[in-house]
Specification:
The chain has two domains: 26-239, no CATH class; 241-400, Nutrient germinant receptor protein C, domain 3 (GMP Synthetase, Chain A, domain 3), CATH 3.30.300.210. Helix 10 packs across helix 11 (313-340) and helix 12 packs across helix 13. The chain has helices at 2-18, 54-58, 80-87, 107-112, 116-124, 142-145, 156-170, 179-187, 204-207, 241-251, 313-340, 348-355, 357-363, 367-370, 394-399; strands at residues 31-41, 44-52, 70-77, 95-96, 102-106, 133-137, 194-202, 220-231, 234-239, 257-264, 267-285, 288-304, 375-386. The protein contains 15 helices and 13 strands. By secondary structure, the protein is of the alpha/beta class. A hairpin with a 2-residue loop joins strand 11 and strand 12 (288-304). The strands form two sheets. Strands 1, 2, 3, 4, 5, 6, 7, 8 and 9 form a nine-stranded mixed β-sheet that branches. A four-stranded mixed β-sheet has the order 10-11-12-13, sandwiched between helices.
Length: 400
Amino acid sequence: MRRIAVRLAAVVIACALLAGCWDRHELNDLGIVSAIGFDKKGDKIQVTVQILDPSELAGSAGKASGSAAVVAYEEIGVSVDDAIGRLTVKAPYPLYLSHTRMVIIGEEMARKDGVGKVMDYLSRERQMRTDFFIILAKKAKASEVLGIFTPITKIPGNKMYTSLETSAKEWAPVKGVHLVELINDLVTPGKQLALTGIRIEGDRKKGSTPTNIANIRPAAKLMYIGLGVFRGDKLVGWLNEEESKGYKYIQGEVVRSVGFVECGPNEYTVFKIIRAETKRALRMKDDKPFVTIHLRIEADVNEQTCDLDLSKPETIDKLQKMAEKKTVDILTSTVRKAQEIRSDFVGFGNLVERKAPRYWRKHESQWADIFPELEFEVKVSFNIRRVGTKIRSFLQEKEE
């Protein structure tokens, strides 16, 4: 019995020791990072972090002081880890990266140095989760983007995250990319990377002061705009709004969006895209790959300023054909852009690698020269499901 009692006591003591939070940290003793930016600085890397200010977030008696809810610190190093290490002499507490929502890469760095080194650090750092978004600062430095005061949402990193999350579902030209997807695109054969760009719209100098959120119309705003496309890990160009939309259609990533056709001078029929399905097929033509893109869209008429009678089947048929032609043009111009800048961000090479592996193994090293000449076709089926609660616009009724 005595032996049993001794063993039980040992087990109880061991469990008590294991239950202790030996590596705990108080929240007030951590510099919680909400966003990180990376820029090229000569032959070195500049890292900018936004750290939450708990006192400002809490406010006083439910009211904020008007100061920034985050504080930005920046430092230069020969590597990402070196720069972050040097930040410890500026930041008041140890940096805590697990709550990072946004990673922003400056355009100059993305073009000249690429994103590979940054992604290598982020994928290795044990504090980093993988659910943050990665974007590009278009015609700006990441540090400039992280210096803009944002209205309504006091934490800029959270504002950028929720805005991108929402627009990626509701507006086709925008895409949210997480770390795992980015790395997959970098290492997948025959597929190049595409990242959403963010732009500072307005007066950057005024936007970096608290007065930016003191007015109904802020002097500067952060706005997502188009996709930056890569060759390898380096940025080589930007897609406009239509091309960015075409890219997401080709990838089968459109959840919902808005489109329109012009049915007269300054007259439009506007569609709410409610479903889009993309299929890509490959066949060999004269011993060369030939890609077919099949896109099926379902949409509702959401707005109309045209003099059209939507109760007539021939009107619906006409609108569907107009929408099909416009969509074909968008997708075709997107592929042509990819071929023009020699960046297979549409992933045709990956399709060849999966569907014709023997051809791919033989020609993979020449794909950069084959892709710009690759033949393809686009087929679109556009189906209008509903025309709304009114067949005729009240504008038409008013003119009668």
